[in-house]
Amino acid sequence: MQTLSFHANQRMNQRGITQRQIEMVLKYGDVRHDYYFLNKRMLNRIIDDCHKALAKTAAHAEIHVLQQDLKILKQILDKGGLVVVECENTIITCYQYDSHKTRKNFH
Predict the structure, then answer these.
(1) Which residues, other chains included, contact 7 with Cβ-Cβ below 8 Å and sequence gap of 6+?
(2) Mapping DSSP to helix (H, G, I), strand (E, B) and coil, where does residue 93 land?
(3) Measured distance CA(7)–CA(32) in Å, rounded
(4) What does the DSSP 8-state code read for residue 24?
């Protein structure tokens, strides 16, 4: 796992984002410039793939890991997706994927 900056740790606490959710974004997310992201469309596809993998898997350990991943992915889906900004192996900040859509310009 990459190092968390003080700022990222503060933002995680303020926004209700867990360490495991960050790990899922880094594991399954797409990279664009200096950030990783998971949006709703990607999450739905990944969750479907996990369900298919669960149906095919017989190993108890793999089933447990997939179930844990599914739980976290569904939490991220409830948030609308996540963005994790990373630079030089340090996580700078994180926020909900669609948070930029809710901001209004008051000028």
Answers:
(1) 92, 93
(2) strand
(3) 21
(4) H
Per-residue tokens: 53: 């993998």
Phi, psi of 71 (to 5 degrees): -60, -45
90 residue type, one letter? T
Question: Helix H segments across the chain?
Answer: 6-15, 19-28, 40-56, 60-79, 99-102
Give residue 107's pLDDT. 53
- In the numeric block, the tokens 């369900």 are attached to 51
Write the CA distances from 46 to 27, 31, 50, 53, 54, integer angstroms: 11, 16, 6, 10, 12
Rg (C-alpha) for the chain, rounded Å, is: 15
Verdict on whether the full-model pTM lies above 0.70: yes
